[in-house]
Amino acid sequence: MSETPQKRLYIKTYGCQMNVYDSERMADVLRPLGYGVVDDPEGADLVVLNTCHIREKATEKVYSELGYIKQMKGRKAQAGGKMTIAVAGCVAQAEGKEIMHRQPAVDLVVGPQAYHQLPELIARAHRATGERLSADFAADEKFDALPAERQVNGVTAFLTVQEGCDKFCTFCVVPYTRGGEWSRPPEAIEDEARRLADQGVREVTLLGQNVNAYDGGGHTLAKLVRRLARIPGLDRIRYTTSHPRDMGEDLIAAHGELPQLMPYLHLPVQAGSDKILKAMNRDHTAESYVRLVEKIRAARPDIAMSGDFIVGFPGERDGDFDKTLELVREVGFASAFSFKYSRRPGTPASAMPGQVDEAVKAERLDRLNALLDAQQKAFNALQVGKVLPVLFEKKGRNPGQIVGRSPYLQAVHAVGPDSLLGQIVPVRIESSAKMSLGGVLENQSLLESA
Ligand code: SAH
Ligand code: SF4
Ligand code: F3S
């Protein structure tokens, strides 16, 4: 047993899955220093807010959260203790200096590529000397310097394989907050995946802002996936998020050939009007997107398509928006995320003429969501009567119930023993709702052996 008293670390994560991965890795970096993760910021020794800059609301949340944390810091100081407040993530990268200015209770600011420097930054903050802001873009250093050991919780895990973006969609801050596209070497990824599998992880989701642009010294994403599919115990592989432009033939083929590659694809399209897509600098048309989905479905007919949509981009007229609805009808999505366009400082679109009224955006979002919700319900209803392999992940809310995921990423509830957690088990689907499916174990003797 270590003699070091446990220091309490609270991490709050905003934004995308890359931030979820980064938060876990920050905990890994800090664990050897005696920090253990707690789920309440009150009284914590170190509070990390891992932030998101993608839309204005996401950024504003951080400043209001900092207001609460500052009060907790005050209470801790009154009791004779010290709380260190760190801001990490994309807001840290985009407006580090401004954060320190707007909220002086913040002790340090660390950008997404500098998490390996956390121990040093914390030490400096405690001495209250030197630079307390680290926001460079050396992604290779970050991954080399993070500890190889990861603490996994559960049977699924994220694994970042690619960071950054060179696409410069005119609405988006990511190329500025995460830097240019950069891929980790396949050897390092395989090593991390093997360690995860050894710790009981059955499903890994490969992450990247443009994950299908992965280029690891001669390895495309398809080649990387084939390599990881050979790891014993790693039965399911997913990847996100993809850009239509980088959906290569070999990746499409892999969907038809690799049983480990799950039939779910998040492929944001953003809009259905070519005029708007051009102004967004998306590099695809509505037509080319639809053709691409047809090709993917030829390789894997049952694939669940998912997407992102933005309504109310500058210059979007009613007729343009109708084309988004048309595209959605043509493709048929199993799930989707839709957003009102948010004007981000420094991006080209924020200076474009024809900014759309908030009320119009809200009305369009409602109409789009109604259509997407209906498609999601219809897709889920299609599963009723089928037997799906479900990877059970955790206990359900009701006693005796366990919850897992179908290949299509739907949550599935069933009555079953805890001994099935971590296993892939056939489940007969009996009911469906918008967000989940309900079923019974196909092999009822699994219930009796409990
Ligand atoms: N790299 C991914 C996702 C990036 S951010 C991709 O290219 O698809 C996730 C989603 O947020 C985007 O797909 C987009 O739909 C949305 N988004 C990004 N910037 C936005 C903005 N300024 N306003 C509203 N939504 C935005
Ligand atoms: Fe943003 Fe476009 Fe890059 Fe996605 S592809 S991260 S939307 S700039
Ligand atoms: Fe947000 Fe940064 Fe992810 S802006 S969506 S946390 S890459």
Question: Looking at this structure, what is the CATH superfamily of the largest domain?
Answer: Methylthiotransferase, N-terminal domain
In CATH, the topology of the largest domain is named Rossmann fold
**What's the N-to-C terminus distance?**
35 Å
Contiguous low-pLDDT stretches (5 residues minimum) are: none
Number of extended strands: 19
Report the CATH C-level class of the largest domain.
Alpha Beta
* Cα-based radius of gyration, to the nearest Å: 23 Å
Helix/sheet category: alpha/beta
Q: Looking across the biggest beta sheet, what order are the strands in? A: 2-1-3-4-5-6
Biggest beta sheet attributes: 6 strands, parallel
Quaternary state of the chains: single chain
Identify the CATH architecture of the largest domain: 3-Layer(aba) Sandwich
The set of bound ligands, ions and cofactors reads: S-adenosyl-L-homocysteine, iron/sulfur cluster, FE3-S4 cluster
Describe this structure in words.
By secondary structure, the chain is of the alpha/beta class. The chain has four domains: 7-140, Rossmann fold (3-Layer(aba) Sandwich); 152-261, Transcription Regulator spoIIAA; 263-382, Transcription Regulator spoIIAA, CATH 3.30.750.200; 387-448, OB fold (Dihydrolipoamide Acetyltransferase, E2P), CATH 2.40.50.140. It has 14 helices and 19 strands. It has helices spanning 17-30, 56-78, 89-102, 118-127, 139-145, 174-177, 186-198, 221-228, 249-257, 274-279, 286-299, 318-331, 358-381, 445-448; strands at 7-13, 35-37, 46-51, 84-88, 108-110, 133-134, 156-160, 162-163, 182-183, 203-207, 236-240, 264-266, 304-311, 335-340, 387-395, 401-405, 411-415, 424-432, 436-441. It has a six-stranded parallel beta sheet with strand order 2-1-3-4-5-6, with helices on both faces. A five-stranded mixed beta barrel has the order 15-16-17-19-18. α1 (17-30) links the parallel β1 (7-13) and β2 (35-37). α8 packs parallel to α9 and α9 (249-257) packs parallel to α11. The model has no long low-confidence stretch (mean pLDDT 94). Bound molecules: S-adenosyl-L-homocysteine, iron/sulfur cluster and FE3-S4 cluster. FE3-S4 cluster binds at residues 15-16, 18-19, 52-54, 89-90, 173-174, 177-178, 209.
